[in-house]
Amino acid sequence: MQILSVPLDLVLLGPPGSGKGTQAARLAAKYGIPAIATGDILRAQVEAGTPLGLQVKAYLDRGELAPDKLVIDIIRHRLSDPDTLLGFILDGFPRTVRQAQALDALLAELERPLDAVLYLQVDRQSLLDRLGHRAEIDQRSDDRPDVIAHRIDVFLDQTAPLIDYYRQQSKLRLIDGRQPADQVAAAIDGLIGSLQ
Ligand code: ADP
Questions:
Q1: Tens digit of pLDDT for each residue in 56-107?
Q2: Active-site residue 20, yes or no?
Q3: Among the options 30, 78, 112, 134, which is catalytic?
Q4: Is 171 considered catalytic here?
Q5: Which residue of 93, 97, 127, 187 has the lowest C-beta tally within 10 Å?
Protein backbone atom coordinates (compact mmCIF):
# COMPACT_ATOMS: atom_id res chain seq x y z
CA MET A 1 0.00 0.00 0.00
CA GLN A 2 1.19 3.48 -0.83
CA ILE A 3 0.78 6.30 1.67
CA LEU A 4 -0.67 9.45 0.14
CA SER A 5 1.10 12.71 0.90
CA VAL A 6 -2.12 14.67 0.35
CA PRO A 7 -5.70 13.39 0.24
CA LEU A 8 -6.80 12.00 -3.10
CA ASP A 9 -10.39 12.74 -4.10
CA LEU A 10 -11.28 11.16 -7.42
CA VAL A 11 -14.27 10.47 -9.61
CA LEU A 12 -14.20 7.62 -12.11
CA LEU A 13 -16.48 8.49 -14.99
CA GLY A 14 -17.36 6.14 -17.82
CA PRO A 15 -20.12 4.12 -19.43
CA PRO A 16 -21.32 0.78 -18.05
CA GLY A 17 -18.66 -1.81 -18.80
CA SER A 18 -15.82 0.71 -19.08
CA GLY A 19 -13.96 -0.88 -16.16
CA LYS A 20 -14.65 1.70 -13.45
CA GLY A 21 -15.32 -0.92 -10.80
CA THR A 22 -12.10 -2.83 -11.54
CA GLN A 23 -9.96 0.29 -11.40
CA ALA A 24 -11.75 1.71 -8.36
CA ALA A 25 -11.13 -1.48 -6.38
CA ARG A 26 -7.46 -1.51 -7.37
CA LEU A 27 -6.95 2.13 -6.41
CA ALA A 28 -8.73 1.58 -3.11
CA ALA A 29 -6.36 -1.27 -2.23
CA LYS A 30 -3.31 0.62 -3.44
CA TYR A 31 -3.95 3.84 -1.51
CA GLY A 32 -6.01 2.53 1.40
CA ILE A 33 -8.95 4.81 0.63
CA PRO A 34 -12.55 3.69 0.02
CA ALA A 35 -14.06 3.05 -3.39
CA ILE A 36 -17.64 4.23 -3.17
CA ALA A 37 -19.89 2.67 -5.82
CA THR A 38 -23.48 3.89 -5.76
CA GLY A 39 -24.53 0.89 -7.86
CA ASP A 40 -23.14 -1.51 -5.23
CA ILE A 41 -24.78 0.45 -2.42
CA LEU A 42 -28.16 0.43 -4.18
CA ARG A 43 -27.91 -3.28 -5.05
CA ALA A 44 -27.10 -4.10 -1.41
CA GLN A 45 -30.23 -2.22 -0.33
CA VAL A 46 -32.31 -4.16 -2.84
CA GLU A 47 -30.84 -7.48 -1.62
CA ALA A 48 -31.52 -6.57 2.00
CA GLY A 49 -35.09 -5.58 1.14
CA THR A 50 -34.83 -2.22 2.92
CA PRO A 51 -37.40 0.54 2.20
CA LEU A 52 -34.75 2.27 0.08
CA GLY A 53 -34.11 -0.98 -1.79
CA LEU A 54 -37.80 -1.43 -2.49
CA GLN A 55 -37.93 2.12 -3.78
CA VAL A 56 -35.06 1.72 -6.25
CA LYS A 57 -35.42 -1.88 -7.42
CA ALA A 58 -37.56 -1.06 -10.45
CA TYR A 59 -35.11 1.61 -11.62
CA LEU A 60 -32.17 -0.78 -11.41
CA ASP A 61 -34.02 -3.59 -13.17
CA ARG A 62 -34.94 -1.29 -16.05
CA GLY A 63 -31.49 0.27 -16.31
CA GLU A 64 -32.89 3.69 -15.39
CA LEU A 65 -31.19 6.04 -12.96
CA ALA A 66 -32.43 6.13 -9.40
CA PRO A 67 -33.75 9.56 -8.31
CA ASP A 68 -31.02 12.18 -7.85
CA LYS A 69 -32.11 13.18 -4.36
CA LEU A 70 -31.82 9.66 -3.12
CA VAL A 71 -28.30 8.98 -4.38
CA ILE A 72 -27.14 12.45 -3.36
CA ASP A 73 -28.27 11.70 0.21
CA ILE A 74 -26.40 8.40 0.15
CA ILE A 75 -23.20 10.12 -0.95
CA ARG A 76 -23.61 12.96 1.56
CA HIS A 77 -23.77 10.42 4.39
CA ARG A 78 -21.00 8.25 3.03
CA LEU A 79 -18.58 11.16 2.62
CA SER A 80 -19.05 12.06 6.27
CA ASP A 81 -17.59 8.70 7.33
CA PRO A 82 -14.07 9.09 8.75
CA ASP A 83 -12.54 6.54 6.36
CA THR A 84 -12.85 9.13 3.58
CA LEU A 85 -10.51 11.62 5.32
CA LEU A 86 -7.48 10.49 3.32
CA GLY A 87 -9.42 10.40 0.08
CA PHE A 88 -12.07 8.52 -1.84
CA ILE A 89 -12.83 7.13 -5.26
CA LEU A 90 -16.34 7.65 -6.51
CA ASP A 91 -17.46 4.96 -8.96
CA GLY A 92 -20.78 5.57 -10.69
CA PHE A 93 -21.47 8.91 -9.00
CA PRO A 94 -22.15 11.55 -10.19
CA ARG A 95 -24.26 10.41 -13.14
CA THR A 96 -26.25 13.56 -13.86
CA VAL A 97 -25.39 17.25 -13.92
CA ARG A 98 -27.60 17.72 -10.88
CA GLN A 99 -25.61 15.10 -8.98
CA ALA A 100 -22.35 16.75 -10.07
CA GLN A 101 -23.55 20.14 -8.83
CA ALA A 102 -24.63 18.62 -5.51
CA LEU A 103 -21.24 16.95 -5.15
CA ASP A 104 -19.45 20.23 -5.85
CA ALA A 105 -21.56 21.98 -3.22
CA LEU A 106 -20.92 19.23 -0.70
CA LEU A 107 -17.17 19.18 -1.30
CA ALA A 108 -17.04 22.98 -1.14
CA GLU A 109 -18.61 22.74 2.32
CA LEU A 110 -15.97 20.21 3.30
CA GLU A 111 -13.29 22.42 1.70
CA ARG A 112 -11.94 19.56 -0.36
CA PRO A 113 -12.61 20.03 -4.07
CA LEU A 114 -12.12 17.06 -6.41
CA ASP A 115 -8.56 16.45 -7.55
CA ALA A 116 -9.51 14.89 -10.86
CA VAL A 117 -12.21 13.14 -12.85
CA LEU A 118 -10.87 10.18 -14.81
CA TYR A 119 -12.96 9.44 -17.85
CA LEU A 120 -12.60 5.86 -19.11
CA GLN A 121 -13.38 6.04 -22.82
CA VAL A 122 -14.75 2.90 -24.49
CA ASP A 123 -16.73 2.65 -27.74
CA ARG A 124 -20.27 1.29 -27.75
CA GLN A 125 -19.51 -2.01 -29.48
CA SER A 126 -16.74 -2.90 -27.01
CA LEU A 127 -19.12 -2.13 -24.15
CA LEU A 128 -21.79 -4.39 -25.60
CA ASP A 129 -19.23 -7.19 -26.04
CA ARG A 130 -17.87 -6.84 -22.51
CA LEU A 131 -21.22 -6.61 -20.78
CA GLY A 132 -22.53 -9.48 -22.86
CA HIS A 133 -19.69 -11.65 -21.54
CA ARG A 134 -20.22 -10.44 -18.00
CA ALA A 135 -23.89 -11.36 -18.27
CA GLU A 136 -22.87 -14.98 -18.80
CA ILE A 137 -21.20 -15.16 -15.41
CA ASP A 138 -22.97 -12.76 -13.09
CA GLN A 139 -26.42 -12.64 -11.55
CA ARG A 140 -27.19 -8.98 -12.10
CA SER A 141 -30.77 -8.48 -13.12
CA ASP A 142 -29.73 -5.52 -15.31
CA ASP A 143 -27.16 -7.45 -17.38
CA ARG A 144 -29.74 -8.56 -19.95
CA PRO A 145 -29.07 -7.49 -23.56
CA ASP A 146 -31.99 -5.06 -23.81
CA VAL A 147 -31.24 -3.50 -20.42
CA ILE A 148 -27.51 -3.30 -21.21
CA ALA A 149 -28.21 -1.34 -24.40
CA HIS A 150 -30.55 0.93 -22.48
CA ARG A 151 -27.95 1.60 -19.75
CA ILE A 152 -25.52 2.72 -22.43
CA ASP A 153 -28.15 5.06 -23.89
CA VAL A 154 -28.88 6.44 -20.42
CA PHE A 155 -25.16 7.10 -20.03
CA LEU A 156 -24.96 8.93 -23.35
CA ASP A 157 -28.06 10.95 -22.59
CA GLN A 158 -27.72 11.82 -18.89
CA THR A 159 -24.10 11.20 -17.87
CA ALA A 160 -22.05 12.14 -20.94
CA PRO A 161 -22.83 15.88 -20.35
CA LEU A 162 -20.53 15.56 -17.31
CA ILE A 163 -17.58 15.21 -19.68
CA ASP A 164 -17.98 18.88 -20.64
CA TYR A 165 -18.97 19.85 -17.11
CA TYR A 166 -15.64 18.64 -15.75
CA ARG A 167 -13.66 19.73 -18.79
CA GLN A 168 -14.81 23.28 -18.07
CA GLN A 169 -13.50 22.88 -14.52
CA SER A 170 -10.17 21.61 -15.93
CA LYS A 171 -10.69 18.44 -13.88
CA LEU A 172 -11.18 15.99 -16.74
CA ARG A 173 -8.48 13.45 -17.58
CA LEU A 174 -9.03 11.04 -20.46
CA ILE A 175 -8.02 7.38 -20.25
CA ASP A 176 -8.27 4.91 -23.12
CA GLY A 177 -10.49 2.29 -21.46
CA ARG A 178 -10.24 -0.15 -24.38
CA GLN A 179 -6.76 -1.16 -23.27
CA PRO A 180 -6.21 -4.25 -21.10
CA ALA A 181 -6.91 -3.55 -17.41
CA ASP A 182 -3.23 -3.42 -16.40
CA GLN A 183 -2.50 -0.82 -19.07
CA VAL A 184 -5.48 1.23 -17.97
CA ALA A 185 -4.11 0.91 -14.43
CA ALA A 186 -0.68 2.15 -15.54
CA ALA A 187 -2.24 5.14 -17.30
CA ILE A 188 -4.23 6.00 -14.17
CA ASP A 189 -1.17 5.64 -11.94
CA GLY A 190 0.72 8.01 -14.23
CA LEU A 191 -2.02 10.60 -13.93
CA ILE A 192 -2.27 10.26 -10.16
CA GLY A 193 1.51 10.60 -9.91
CA SER A 194 1.23 13.96 -11.63
CA LEU A 195 -1.39 15.09 -9.08
CA GLN A 196 0.61 14.23 -5.96
P1 ADP B 1 -22.98 0.10 -14.52
O2 ADP B 1 -21.98 1.21 -14.52
O3 ADP B 1 -22.46 -1.16 -15.14
O4 ADP B 1 -24.32 0.49 -15.08
P5 ADP B 1 -23.52 0.44 -11.65
O6 ADP B 1 -23.38 -0.58 -10.60
O7 ADP B 1 -22.64 1.65 -11.57
O8 ADP B 1 -23.28 -0.34 -13.03
O9 ADP B 1 -25.05 0.97 -11.71
C10 ADP B 1 -26.12 0.07 -11.77
C11 ADP B 1 -27.44 0.81 -11.64
O12 ADP B 1 -27.53 1.45 -10.36
C13 ADP B 1 -27.70 1.92 -12.65
O14 ADP B 1 -28.20 1.44 -13.86
C15 ADP B 1 -28.73 2.78 -11.88
O16 ADP B 1 -30.00 2.19 -11.92
C17 ADP B 1 -28.23 2.69 -10.45
N18 ADP B 1 -27.28 3.79 -10.12
C19 ADP B 1 -25.96 3.64 -9.80
N20 ADP B 1 -25.40 4.82 -9.55
C21 ADP B 1 -26.36 5.76 -9.71
C22 ADP B 1 -26.41 7.18 -9.63
N23 ADP B 1 -25.31 7.90 -9.32
N24 ADP B 1 -27.58 7.80 -9.88
C25 ADP B 1 -28.68 7.12 -10.19
N26 ADP B 1 -28.71 5.78 -10.31
C27 ADP B 1 -27.58 5.10 -10.08
A1: 999 999 999 999 999 999 999 999 999 999 999 999 999 999 999 999 999 9
A2: yes
A3: 134
A4: no
A5: 97
